[in-house]
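Exercise 7. Given the encoded structure of a 191-residue chain, write a plausible sequence.
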């Protein structure tokens, strides 16, 4: 269905179409020999392997645009070209309880959702992805400061009060006035 056709649907038809698409995508993803999830910055993949598997029995290759997971001497469980590039130095795998391989892939482009892991596997509609809400405590210091400033400024605007930048300018003007009492600031405007 084209975006134009989708836009012509009623709200109920859109909801039914979206529900059917989510069910189709879920069925396609469930049929894959692995499960995966993603955040904007990374992809996590879980590949079941025979119980009792040891790391020395695994054949795992993580390349910038390729991935292979399997057991030595056997057909790979999954193999192919990755949807997007990954950072090799920050991508890794771990064998868990001798029955799962957990693969962590660090995305090169941290601002883009992946449609699939391997290019030949079914695609997800990335326009419908709803990321989990993050907490301020999850953010690095600089980003957290920026978000808190934006939240403060938004609150101030809603109450008709000056923003943090306007408060700084007003404070600077007060200090300047105190240092120069001989000047007339009665017509001064803070912009």
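Solution.
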């Amino acid at each position: 269905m084209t975006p134009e056709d989708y836009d012509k649907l009623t709200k109920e038809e859109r909801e039914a179409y979206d529900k059917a698409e989510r069910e189709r995508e879920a069925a396609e993803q469930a049929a894959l020999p692995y499960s995966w999830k993603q955040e904007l910055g990374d992809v996590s993949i879980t590949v079941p392997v025979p119980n009792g598997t040891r790391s020395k029995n695994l054949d795992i290759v993580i390349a910038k645009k390729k991935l292979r997971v399997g057991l030595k001497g056997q057909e790979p469980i999954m193999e192919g070209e990755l949807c997007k590039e990954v950072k090799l130095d920050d991508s890794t795998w771990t064998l868990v309880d001798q029955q799962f391989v957990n693969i962590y892939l660090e995305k090169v482009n941290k601002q883009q959702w992946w449609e699939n892991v391997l290019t030949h596997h079914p695609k997800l509609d990335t326009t419908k992805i709803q990321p989990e809400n993050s907490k301020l405590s999850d953010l690095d210091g600089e980003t957290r400061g920026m978000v808190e400033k934006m939240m403060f400024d938004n609150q101030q605007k809603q109450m008709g009060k000056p923003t943090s930048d306007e408060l700084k300018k007003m404070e600077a003007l007060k200090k300047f006035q105190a240092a120069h009492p001989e000047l007339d600031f009665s017509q001064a405007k803070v912009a």
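Remark. The chain has four helices and seven strands. Students should compare their own answers with the one above.
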